[in-house]
Design brief:
disordered N terminus, 14 helices
Length: 286
């Protein structure tokens, strides 16, 4: 799961062993400052990359990677047109790098240009047919467009090409898509051993296996570190929204998806996925 949508997750969640529940959540001002620092960090990365790109001293693959880095941070800032332009320039320089196509596909997905995202993911899978990220994004495109059976198929394929932490997420997505389609989940989320219990995202998985409750999940998603708290809350609230949708509790789902978006963790795919669910809920309510 080490791609541009969850780089911070790799730093703070991948190795995070949750402590005992009951952390006091940071206050409003601390959370606001954390969100401002996060955005400032993305803006600083754009400024640095722009300075290097405009210097004229780089070309070839190194320039392509500078463009990719700037595009990633533009995407975190929700500036998808600028991100797509940078990824396109990177592809023009190095058209055989699957990461550039995947990056642009994700930006297209977030911009709701699904056909263009599909085209880029086909390029990724043409270069690497077992690419976890591309299979996951194919699943998300299908899910975003309401083709839940197709989403299950791609999430299942993705689950075969990922590490243990990524497999838990894949199992969650398979379970969510299948149950939303009115089918039993074709995958079982395995109960963790005692040494892994509490390691994220196991608390989320336990909600979907009936071993936990929404209240317990939110307790496990608290941290006294403001940024970590926001990251955990982004994921927890998104998956809570999916849990409530499965139970037909649309207003609780809407509240959870709004809470996920409110965290401002724009580099997590759960942020954009929550936005998409809100879009679909709004359409359904008209």
């Amino acid at each position: 799961m080490l791609n541009w949508l969850n780089g911070l997750r790799a730093l703070a969640l991948l190795s995070l062993l949750m402590g005992a529940p009951g952390f006091a959540a940071p206050d409003h001002d601390a959370l606001l400052q954390a969100k401002e620092r996060l955005r400032a960090g993305f803006e600083s990365e754009v400024t640095t990359a722009t300075r290097e790109i405009d210097s004229g001293q780089y070309e070839g693959p190194f320039l392509a990677h500078l463009l990719r880095d700037r595009g990633v941070n533009y995407s975190h800032l929700l500036a998808y047109d600028k991100a797509i332009a940078d990824f396109t320039r990177a592809i023009e320089i190095d058209g055989f790098n699957p990461q550039f196509y995947q990056d642009r596909a994700i930006a297209y997905l977030r911009a709701r240009e699904f056909a263009k995202a599909e085209t880029d993911l086909a390029m990724v899978l043409g270069l690497d047919r077992n690419n976890f990220g591309a299979l996951r994004e194919k699943g998300r495109i299908a899910f975003y467009q309401g083709d839940l059976s197709e989403a299950v198929n791609y999430f299942l394929q993705a689950s075969r090409n990922v590490d243990a932490e990524g497999k838990v997420y894949s199992m969650l997505w398979v379970s969510i898509a299948a149950q939303r389609a009115g089918r039993p989940s074709p995958l079982t989320i395995q109960s963790p051993n005692e040494t892994a219990r509490g390691q994220w995202p196991v608390p989320v998985a336990e909600l979907f296996t009936g071993a936990s409750t929404p209240e317990k999940l939110l307790e496990r998603a608290e941290s006294d570190n403001p940024r970590t708290h926001l990251m955990l809350q982004c994921e927890a609230q998104f998956y809570l929204g999916e849990y409530y949708l499965m139970k037909g509790e649309k207003e609780l789902a809407r509240a959870s998806f709004n809470a996920a978006v409110e965290t401002g963790i724009t580099d997590f795919m759960e942020y954009d996925w929550a936005l998409r669910e809100l879009e679909l809920l709004n359409v359904a309510s008209k």
